[in-house]
Amino acid sequence: MKKIIVCTFLIAAGAATLLNINNKIETQAPEFAFKNSYAITLGYDKSMSEKTIKAAVIDSYFRSVAANGKIIRWNRATFPLKVYIQDSADVPEYYREVVMSAYQSWQRASEGLVSFEFVESPSGADMKCYFRNTDNKKSIGVHSFTINGNKITDSTIVFNKTNDKNHSLDSKQLFSSALQEIGHSLGLTGASPSIYDVMYPIGTKFNTEITTRDLKTLALVYSVKPDVTNEPLTTTEMSQLFTVSEVLNTLNVPITNDTKNLDEIIANDVATHLALAEQYRRRAEYDKAAREYQAVAQTKTDRRSKSEVYYEIAVMYLDAEEFSNAKSSAEIALATDENDLTETLPALIDYYTKRSNSATEQLETILKHNPYNKHAYKLLCQIYRDKHQQNLLNATIRKYGKTAGIEE
Q1: Is there a contact between 25 and 50 (Cβ–Cβ < 8 Å)?
Q2: How far apart are CA 230 and CA 73, in angstroms?
Q3: For 248-294, how does the pLDDT look when each residue is reduced to its tens digit (9 = 90+)?
């Protein structure tokens, strides 16, 4: 479920570059034989090279999904799935349209890997969406599967009709939540550790873009044998799929073993450094994670890629509320490469630490010199909303709404 916490809304520019690897990997000995890599649109299969699979796993959060113990996802042969979205007179008309748009976004972004058919009755629907208030007003939506043995019988998402102040849901907040809950319903049962992704567990109405990492994770989930599905796969279909262990064996770090002493692992390539960084980050050992990220930065040959690594370190510390370390890493990221993301990050840190006046001054200066910086624009609008400064908010929208590419 997605909590409404205004904080991590800088979007996915640069995330894929940080996690892509091109270095030579050591030969593994998995149970299946890899062939030469070739480009396909809808996922990964045993015709692809080990290097391709390894790069996909690293540039995804498939390991988080796998760590839950079971792969729960739909049989691809049964797509398009039938989707029922409640048409309720108790909520604004746009609620249903927003949720429908979120389904269409997953279908469009996945280029047909997943697809949907909207129906007018819950009877016979695979996925059902309802609008009703729950006891948890801090979350907009919550997803659950109905499972009988090892079979999915249906999937249900319940969205609160109002927020914790009993106001109607903002359309962007509802859209962001719908993207994540639909992701859960498609089989993305783990969470991403990156603020860029739709499946990051804490989000805002600005987290509305399905990222490359989201799509690679989805493709990997649909490239392995499911433990639970809606219809059994044929023997031929199963023969084309990996097991989870086959996919994870392409890595050098056994990420599912929480008792392993990671300090004993010697990282000899970018893949291992990134896997260790993620594991340390998950264990809240942030300084060790930063050390592994810094090792990755040393392998980067261009300023933009190196800056993206330090940006990720700053975000990690910011999310952990270690603000001094976040500020130091943000300064390195900005000094390494000045761009819209790194330029806005110091103001975001000030916003986190309740220094909104300082953040406002920085953001106004940024937009004065670069009216196309949508990250600065979004944060400045949010600050004015928080402070109920409607006149300043309206003035900012009029002045920068079009140039920053965002129509409020």
Answers
A1: yes
A2: 8
A3: 877 655 544 555 677 776 677 777 788 788 778 878 899 999 999 99
Model confidence over 127-138: pLDDT tens digits? 999 999 877 767
CB atoms within 10 A of CB 4: 19
Burial 32-60 (b: 16+ CB within 10 A, else e): eebeeeeeeeebbeeebebbbbbbbbbbb
Q: Output the CA–CA distances (angstroms, integers) from residue 107 to 21, 159, 385, in the order listed.
A: 27, 21, 33
Whole-number Å distance between alpha carbons of 3 and 163 = 11
Q: Would you say residue 129 lies in a domain?
A: no
Q: CA angle 365-176-334, nearest 5°? A: 30
Are 242 and 32 a contacting pair, CB within 8 Å? yes
Give the domain CATH number at 308: 1.25.40.10
Query: Domain tally for the chain?
Result: 1
Domain that holds residue 310: 262-400
Q: Are 88 and 128 in contact (CB under 8 A)?
A: no
Please state, as a whole number, how many other Cβ atoms lie within 10 Å of the Cβ of residue 61: 24
Q: Pairing between strand 202-203 and 81-85?
A: unpaired
**Rounded CA separation 322/143 (Å):** 32
What is the Cα–Cα distance from 195 to 214, expressed in whole angstroms?
Answer: 12
